[in-house]
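Hello again, I could really use a second opinion on something today. I've been staring at a protein lately and its backbone has me curious. You're getting the sequence in one-letter code plus the fold written as tokens. I'd be grateful if you could look everything over and explain what you see. No rush at all, and the record is pasted right below:
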Amino acid sequence: MRMVRATAQTGRLVSARELCDVHPMPFDVLSKVLQRLAHCGVVTSEQGAQGGYRLCTDLDQLSLHALSEWLVGPTRFATCMDERCECQLTGSCTIISAVVNLSKRLEQFYRDVSIGDLLASEEEEAIRIRNQFSRKQTIMGRLQYIDHGNRSA
């Protein structure tokens, strides 16, 4: 979604190839994901030499649950939650109520988290990590400087 959000920020169509160049990912995989997102109405696509994809959904309104269901289909957190379950213990399972409760809570969590939330927290975390790495690099540079006989620093 980070890739698709880039299309919203530029306001122009972005080709799958351009997205692959910026975000290393196999072209075939990215193309299939973009086609699926277009089918679900998350992005629009335009064919042709100047074609590409553009975000047409507010990512703050798109839940992780909805996106997951669109891309991979309905998910169950435990196989016994599936109606076609062939588990031998279904009738006598001692933890089924806990599994059902956990499944409901996880599904609600996925419904409550928007893709916009995830991207915002990802960007904040990336900035924090870059800053931390930058400080470590500065400290390591100073230590190497001192280590090479430049003790006046």
